[in-house]
Design a protein that fits this description.
Elements lengths: L1 H20 L5 H18 L10 H25 L5 H8 L2 H13 L5 H16 L12 H26 L4 H23 L2 H5 L4 H26 L5 H7 L3 H9 L4 H21 L3 H7 L6
Helix pairs in contact: 1-10, 1-12, 2-3, 2-8, 2-10, 3-7, 3-8, 4-7, 5-7, 5-11, 6-11, 6-13, 11-13
Length: 295
């Protein structure tokens, strides 16, 4: 379970890195550029490229890239322009629920009562970190768009899980094709609806390239490579629930840790431990289902 916590601790650092880059770049252009470069890097590290049957990967990877990287990023970037951080944090709490739904629909994974108890604790812990927590949201267009972003991201993640865990697809090849295709789509869309060159010409070249390289290595290469390994070992509910730790690490890196945030972290961690030990007896059953599930 430590590897899952490391995944979100590392990926949380990209929020601060993105802030620096967005001074000199538009959101879609930055998203497209980093995913395209990451896809090329994954391709360069592929072994025995001539023997890989890429045609078997094309359709699944295009779908994963569309939902995981293109749609989720495009919708989120647009919605965050109109929402407060409190509203965004509150909406993000729903992510594990969508993950459970798609895990059942796509991979026939059934959530146990103990897992549900752990998930509930994680969500309550995340909610407790939100100042003036309010169960009611005004369902404006930006709110609905951010919900759609979370749905799209969850769907893409579960599709990736399906092909890696149950169909033995290579995580490296999936990341390569899905990121490259999503990057091309995002860059194309950026030039249509944004004016990326207007901002990027003001960027100090060396600074921009160094920060961009760090972001690609941390977010796209390390995090998604680790995610590809974790989906083979852990359930969707555990991995998605751990994503609720991300705001804590963002606050930690920015030096804004409060007692309330620490209290939230402890509750979420306790919930994750319950989920982790609840699914341990299911590991043997899960291994038996690898060849029969998700067909």
């Amino acid at each position: 379970m430590l590897a899952i916590i490391i995944l979100y601790a590392v990926s949380a650092s990209t929020f601060l890195i993105s802030k620096s880059l967005l001074i000199y770049s538009t959101p879609l252009f930055l998203s497209g550029l980093r995913t395209l470069i990451a896809g090329i890097i994954f391709f360069l590290f592929l072994k025995d490229r001539k023997t890989i049957e890429f045609k078997n990967y094309i359709v699944p990877c295009l779908i994963i890239g569309f939902f995981s990287f293109f749609m989720s990023n495009t919708l989120r970037f647009w919605a965050l322009q109109y929402l407060t951080s409190e509203q965004s944090a509150l909406i993000a709490i729903s992510e594990p629920l969508f993950a459970i739904l798609f895990a059942y629909l796509i991979c026939s994974e059934i959530t146990t009562i103990k897992q549900c108890v752990g998930l509930l604790l994680c969500m309550l812990g995340a909610a407790s970190a939100t100042p003036s927590f309010n169960l009611f949201l005004s369902f404006s267009l930006p709110t609905c768009v951010l919900f759609l972003s979370i749905v799209s991201s969850s769907l893409g993640a579960l599709l990736m899980r399906k092909f890696i865990r149950f169909h033995n697809y290579s995580p490296t090849i999936i990341n390569c094709i899905s990121m490259a295709s999503a990057g091309i789509c995002a860059l194309t869309t950026s030039f249509v609806i944004e004016d990326p060159l207007h901002k990027i010409v003001t960027a100090p070249p060396l600074f921009f390239l160094i920060i961009l390289a760090i972001m690609i290595l941390v977010s796209n290469i390390f995090s998604y490579s680790l995610y590809g390994k974790l989906v083979k070992q852990y359930s969707a509910v555990l991995i998605s629930s751990a994503s609720l730790l991300r705001p804590f690490f963002v606050a930690l890196y920015s030096g804004n840790i409060t007692i309330q945030m620490l209290f939230s972290f402890i509750i979420i961690l306790f919930g994750l431990i319950i989920i982790y030990y609840a699914e341990k007896p299911l590991e043997r059953v899960s291994h038996l289902q690898w060849h029969t599930g998700c067909q």
